[in-house]
Design a protein that fits this description.
The protein is an all-alpha fold. It folds into two domains: about 15-85, Alpha Horseshoe (Serine Threonine Protein Phosphatase 5, Tetratricopeptide repeat), CATH 1.25.40; about 85-175, Alpha Horseshoe (Serine Threonine Protein Phosphatase 5, Tetratricopeptide repeat), CATH 1.25.40. The chain is about 75% helix and about 0% strand. The protein is elongated, with a radius of gyration of 20 Å. The termini are far apart.
Length: about 180
Amino acid sequence: MWVRTSILVLAVLFSPLTKADQLSEAIRAIDTGQMRQAAQLLAPLANAGNSTAQFRLGLLYYMGHGVPEDEKQAVFYWKKAANQGSVDAMFHLGSAYLFGNQAARTVPDPDREAATWYFQAASAGHPEAQYHLGLLFLAGKGVIDSRTESARWMRKAAAQGHQEAKKALSVIESAK
């Protein structure tokens, strides 16, 4: 028993990077443009369930930075992160269903799917999601056509300093 414990302690002490260090190193790699290295550092963390790594790796796949561009992989990792509460992942999922190519083909109503993810992110206070959800209500895409709901979400985004939401809210309110 003592031997096993000693080996475990030595393995932890002499491991090259802890998970927190590995995530920090991956983010530094992204910041310095070393995308391939970042993806290599993020992948094991993402696959082990780290929501920040899942979100970041999803971005790399979506943009094709350090890995082949792959919207399906991006959505796969963003869903994992979103299911753990990552508001940024929720927002990016909404955008993937609304503006992406592959994600939109995987659901019967991509606009409704986008609205669902935007609603989750917007409800958690994400200003860009609030703005996008407001636009969907204004256009009646994936949700009912409602200037009132549009203004409500635009107001929330504007209150957080979102400039485009402020402009849109001004237009919506002047049309009453």
